[in-house]
Design a protein that fits this description.
Immunoglobulin-like; alpha+beta; Ig_E-set
């Protein structure tokens, strides 16, 4: 609201200072007028310039109008459409006002008697702007379209409206295509739409776009559109209505009903149903589980599993849908991933439980994993964990392992073997089993004496046997069971013991052959055997072993060993060959005899040629004595020079786009096919060269070392055509040379961008994987794809249908490769987000029972509530709302498990919504909802509904649970005041007791049970009575109450109720005058009587008594009242009819309070005064008796009394001592004292008289003080 720039003076100010007000008002008014004039001038001069500036910056576009499809003839009720075409540039953000033209038909703007439903369709797509309306009057009309902001004024359009024929609404019927209503899951179901001939699509604002709702066989659990029942809902609604069809794909097995609806076209068809059987087995969707006695076995026993096969949509497959030949890949591994043995795997086909049975023998012991796969994809539940214990010991399968593999042992050395205790299937058996062994000398078959024999278990299942060798010769070792009936494997073990003193620590090994070298080069090193005192320790040549291995390739190299001439250390005296090896002729001495090979020697030369690159290990043994402390010598052998004939071009693309970087991968190798690692400086020797014709249009960018012997070169062809390219190293061509590359335009190659889709965990989704991809030629196809890991994928031409596996949620994906019409390929991924459906009820009560105004149930909470949710770790919510009550949690159960309640959030919203919201994980919510309680709002009974909403981050589900609230009887109520003031009441004119306009009070009676009465409220009747203590009253009642009305006559002294005998009925009503009336009627009848009572009383007034008896009604209807009637409840109220206004209760209460407070204060003061007065009197008496001598004469006593009196009268302080009062009261007190104590000094009194006089005067003193 606009306020002038000054303030008006208030009324008081203007009254006291009228001249100032006139002066101030005139001055401020002049200022206000001046400001307004100045603003108007600014607007007048500046606005045109602003307008011109806007016009120059953004010129207004033009608009052209035409009839859609050039159709300007209509029937009444048709939809007329005008197309709007923009001429020029239009940007709505540049204009202050949007384009919003006015439509004027025959001079009438907007909706009129000519047209109706005028509206515009101006969306973001300006190419589809339209103006629509419905003509409703017959005739020829001209039209004007104008918009003042855009200077639009078009009057070029006319239209003609012809009389409509008799209108018959269109009718739609539906039937299955080819009468096929039985499908397999994944089939295409088609419904034909049969349309009546009078359908005119222009007549309707909304097109035909029906909703398809599918429910189960019982007509429950309705789900609209794509759901867990069907997917891929689509319509074929072209111009030819004879070919209209509805399509969907059933995915769940069972019997279903179809409901087709469209509200704005009155479409409602529930006549169709269909059945679905399982599709073919989709092996990875099957569920695998153990069958039988669990997953714990003994090696050699038979284990059984069962596969419950599913189709691609999660339905249980059957023998009928698939057949009997269903094979899976089954194998076992250890938890570390090593292979485990399962034997005799037999897939037995279908069993009586509808699954596929498989048996196998568990052979390998330990904690294992059983893998059940199809094409390298696990079935659901795979891998299965199981445990296998080893079987009994099989002596014949126990294996000896030697600490050092040798057939020659040096005398006095230790021979040690490790016996692996195994069962029949080679599993280690823990424990220490007794074995027996013999060492027998060849030739004599005598047992060799053994020294320092030791047995010990080194690891569970392996025991060590060692002893000292004390005699040389040829021997056999035999290990058997303790009964010597059965030998272990590889027995007897033959070995020889020779006399030698070689020391592995003192012996020497050196030479260039121990250092790094190049593949293919001859390597050699020398061995000098020495004893513990570093003297030469000769042995026979064949007892020296040299092991050269390449662990990375599990390769063994066979060396040649040559004894060296002990004289000069260079000339060989013989050769021991561990394998075929070509060596230079300088090392060959073929003129030596066989006896020379057995020559004893302590110096040897070893020659070998490593051909593969890598790290070699060299171990040397003198018989069973390891040299170099048993540690291997290591050396690195690098690759040799690049051999172009062995090197290859390993990867390149034959079809590439021009002006784009492309790559070529080369593999460089030496003569022994070892990958060659180049130095960085050698990368420049790698080249890519095209043929001479294309050389000007070819550019090599660089080569990159991949650190594994391969090198990637990048090049860019700049022209279209075929390039012949050669790769070379240091001028040497690498095969294939040349290789051909054909270049195309960049636009000719497809680009795969991939796709992101989402689906609910219990539904399927149909999508086109290529919808985002770029390709030329208008045609492309998916040539290769992999199956996703957590759902089924089926291909239907260009479409895929994906269904997540049961209970899976999260992210899934699969790669695909697409090819265009020219054979060019591109690859990408489809990413699938599987969303958890909101929590679902596993069980919930179909109906809740409660009692009116009572917490229900009385003990605990309602049972039967349980929800399920896939992600047990996610926080979810559940909300309860009652329409006529409140839902809450039992506080007792909340205290029983305190730790759990720390993980849950409970919100109770009061007000109109009254929501109870519980947030937390699945486990705690299921615990919490077992403590639900309900209470209805005040006096509510009947049927209520508890709405339950389960929510997660993706959505929500709603359920309605009915609640039956059993009523209980509540007493009726009477709303009347405590008194009513009788004003101007005469005996001739009655006084309207309950007058709402006069007293502003809601005079009424009622019953809480009447509000929620389940039947007709006219059946709810009460017994109502009104009675006055003096005088009488008149009332007007409906004729229906004559049979139940009783009264007490106004002139009768009797208190007995009498039936109504005579009455006069006028207009179905009758009047009566009585002292008291009662009748049985409705609540409305009672309130009508209450508000029309006319009282005729005397001067003293009286008491009006109102009574209501509910007769036992409490919300039941006549059919069930026999069981639900209760003891009647009666309410009564009395109203005082008075002539004068009584004291206001607040005032009366205040007066009483003041009187009580005053009395309390006075009583307190009196008590205090009496206390101090008594104290003074007792003090005087005490002093008197203290000062009286023994014995004393009466004269002496009188003298003392007079002296005392004189002293008291002469001093001001003496009065204070007696009375205890302030000095201001001393004068009157002294006068009274003189009067009470005045005696003649010469008169004698008996002591009793003196005492009596003193008592009386003391009383007088108290009275004065009071």
């Amino acid at each position: 609201m606009f306020k002038p720039p000054f303030h008006y003076a208030d009324s008081s100010y203007s009254t006291e200072n009228p001249s100032i007000l006139r002066k101030t008002s005139s001055t401020m008014a002049a200022q206000w007028l001046f400001c307004n004039a100045l603003i108007a001038l600014l607007i007048f001069f500046i606005a045109p310039h602003l307008s011109k500036s806007d016009d120059r910056s953004t010129p207004s576009p033009g608009f052209a109008y035409s009839w859609m499809d050039d159709d300007d003839e209509f029937y009444p009720g048709d939809i007329a459409t005008i197309e709007v075409k923009i001429l020029g540039n239009y940007n709505s953000e540049e204009y202050k006002y949007p384009f919003d033209p006015n439509i004027t038909v025959n001079g009438s703007m907007g909706n009129s008697s000519y047209v109706t439903d005028v509206h515009s369709d101006f969306g973001n797509d300006t190419n589809n702007w339209r103006i629509l309306f419905k003509p409703i009057m017959v005739g020829v009309f001209y039209m004007v379209i104008d918009d003042e902001h855009f200077r639009v004024h078009d009057n070029s359009l006319h239209f003609h409206v012809s009389p409509a024929k008799s209108y018959i609404p269109p009718h739609f019927m539906f039937r299955w295509l080819n009468s096929k209503s039985e499908f397999k899951a994944g089939d295409n179901a088609t419904i034909q739409v049969i349309v009546s001939e009078n359908l005119n699509t222009k007549t309707y604002k909304y097109p035909f776009n029906p909703n398809i709702t599918v429910s189960d066989y019982n007509g429950k659990n309705e789900k609209m559109g794509n759901s867990s029942y069907i997917t891929g809902v689509s319509y074929t609604l072209g111009p030819d209505t004879n070919k209209w069809e509805l399509h969907f794909m059933p995915i769940m097995v069972g019997m279903f009903h179809v409901l087709i609806t469209q509200e704005n076209l009155n479409v409602f068809d529930a006549s169709m149903s269909f059945s679905v059987t399982p599709a073919f087995i989709y092996k990875p969707a099957g569920t695998v589980s153990w069958r039988g006695e669990g997953n714990h076995f003994v090696a050699g026993t038979t284990a059984k599993i069962m596969v419950l096969p599913k189709d691609a949509f999660g339905n249980n497959a059957t023998r009928k849908s698939e057949g009997s030949n269903v094979i899976f890949d089954i194998y076992a591994t250890t938890e570390e991933g090593e292979d485990a043995t399962v034997l005799d795997v037999s897939q037995n086909g279908w069993n009586t439980f509808g699954g596929l049975s498989t048996n196998f023998i568990a052979a390998t012991s330990g904690n294992l994993l059983l893998h059940v796969k199809d094409k390298n994809q696990h079935l659901i539940g795979s891998p299965l964990t199981f445990m296998v214990d080893p079987g009994p010991l099989d002596v014949g399968n126990c294996v000896p392992h030697w600490g050092i593999e040798s057939k020659s042992f040096q005398i006095f050395s230790i021979m040690e073997t490790f016996i692996t205790q195994r069962d029949k299937y080679g599993n280690l058996i823990p424990g220490f089993y007794p074995f027996d062994f013999d060492v027998i000398e060849k030739g004599t078959n005598l047992s060799l004496p053994i020294g320092d024999l030791k047995y010990q278990e080194v690891v569970p299942g392996v025991q060590s046997l060692s002893f000292k060798l004390l005699q040389h010769g040829e021997f056999s070792l035999i290990i058997t069971d303790k009964d010597k009936k059965k030998q272990i494997l590889n027995m007897p073990y033959e070995f020889s013991i020779y006399i030698g003193y070689c020391d592995g620590m003192k012996s020497i090994v050196n030479g260039s052959g121990l250092h790094n070298s190049v593949a293919g080069e001859v390597s050699k090193f020398s061995i000098f055997l020495r004893d513990a005192y570093q003297y030469p320790s000769p042995i026979e040549v064949h007892r020296l072993r040299v092991e050269i291995t390449l662990p990375s390739l599990s390769l063994h190299v066979d060396p040649q060993i040559y004894p060296m001439d002990p004289d000069n250390g260079t000339q060989s005296t013989g050769m021991f060959n561990f394998g075929a090896l070509e060596v230079p002729s300088i090392y060959l001495h073929n003129n030596k005899s066989d006896e020379d090979w057995k020559t004893w020697n302590s110096n040897f030369e070893v020659v070998y040629i490593p051909e593969k690159s890598g790290v070699y290990e060299i171990r040397i043994y003198c018989g069973n004595i390891p040299l170099n402390e048993g540690k291997p010598f290591t050396k690195f052998v690098s690759a040799g020079k690049v051999n172009a004939s062995v090197s290859r071009v390993v990867k390149y693309k034959a079809r590439v786009s021009k002006a784009v970087l492309h790559s070529v991968d080369l593999q460089l190798m030496d003569s022994f096919s070892n990958p060659v690692l180049l130095q960085e400086s050698e990368l420049s020797k790698l080249t890519l060269e095209p043929d001479s014709i294309n050389k000007p249009f070819f550019m090599v960018v660089l080569f990159v070392d991949n650190r594994d012997g391969t090198y990637t070169g990048f090049y860019m062809p700049m022209n279209l055509g075929t390039y012949k390219i050669c790769a070379s190293f240091d001028g040497m061509s690498i095969s294939p040379c040349p290789f051909e590359v054909t270049t195309y335009n960049r636009e000719d190659f497809p680009i795969a961008y991939g796709l992101d889709v989402s689906v609910w965990e219990d539904e399927s989704i149909v999508f086109n994987a290529l919808v985002n991809d770029y390709f030329v030629g208008g045609k492309a196809k998916v040539v290769e794809y992999e199956r996703p890991g957590h759902g089924s994928l089926l291909q239907y031409g260009d479409l895929f249908i994906y269904t997540p596996f049961k209970r899976f949620y999260g992210n899934d994906s699969f790669p695909y490769s697409m090819s265009d019409a020219n054979g060019n390929n591109a690859s990408s991924h489809v990413n699938i987000s599987v969303r958890c459906i909101p929590p679902q009820f596993v069980s919930f009560p179909t109906q809740l029972q409660a009692d009116e105004d009572t917490f229900s149930p009385k003990f605990g909470g309602y049972s039967g509530f349980e929800i399920t949710y896939s992600d047990s770790t996610e926080n979810i919510s559940i909300m309860f709302t009652a329409q006529h009550g409140s839902v809450f949690l039992s506080p007792l159960q909340m205290q029983l498990w305190d730790p759990m309640w720390k993980e849950i959030s409970v919100t109770k919203r009061e007000g109109t919504s009254k929501e109870l919201i519980i947030r937390g994980r699945l486990e705690v919510i299921n615990f919490a909802i077992k403590s639900l309680k309900y209470i209805g709002e005040g006096n509510f009974s009947g049927e209520d509904t508890v709405k339950v909403t389960t929510m997660n981050k993706h959505g929500k589900y709603d359920w309605d649970i009915p609640v039956i609230v059993n009523p209980r009887n509540d007493p009726p109520f009477i709303n009347v005041p405590e008194f009513i003031l009788l004003e101007n009441v005469t005996k001739d004119e009655g006084f309207l007791i309950f007058d709402r306009q006069r007293d502003n009070f809601n005079f009424s009676i009622g019953d809480p049970d009447h509000l929620h009465f389940t039947g007709n409220k006219s059946h709810f009747r009460v017994m109502f009575s009104v009675e006055v203590s003096s005088g009488y009253f008149s009332a007007n009642l409906p004729a229906e109450l004559t049979s139940t009305t009783e009264l007490k006559l106004k002139n009768s002294n009797s208190n007995q109720w009498q039936p109504l005998l005579t009455f006069i009925e006028i207009s179905r009503r009758f009047s009566l005058k009585a002292k008291a009336i009662r009748f049985r009627g409705t609540i409305e009848d009672c309130n009508t009587l209450l508000q029309q009572i006319l009282y005729y009383g005397d001067e003293d007034g009286g008491v009006l008594t109102v009574s209501v008896n509910d007769m036992g009604w409490y919300g039941c209807y006549p059919e069930d009242c026999q069981e639900m009637m209760s003891v009647p409840l009666i309410s009564e109220a009395s109203i005082n009819l008075i002539r004068k206004m009584p004291v206001d209760p607040v005032v009366a209460h205040s007066l009483i309070s003041a009187i009580v407070i005053e009395s309390t204060i006075l009583s307190s003061l009196t008590t205090i005064l009496i206390f101090y007065t008594s104290k003074c009197v007792f003090a005087l008496l005490h002093k008197k008796f203290k000062d009286q001598p023994q014995p004393q004469s009466q004269n002496f006593q009188l003298h003392k009394l007079q002296s005392s009196h004189e002293h008291m009268s002469s001093t001001k302080d003496s009065s204070e001592n007696i009375t205890g009062q302030p000095s201001s009261l001393s004068n009157p007190l002294n006068e009274e004292s003189k009067i009470g104590l005045s005696v003649d000094s010469h008169t004698s009194f008996p002591s009793g008289q003196i005492n009596g006089t003193l008592s009386v005067n003391s009383s007088s003193l108290v009275k004065i003080l009071h």
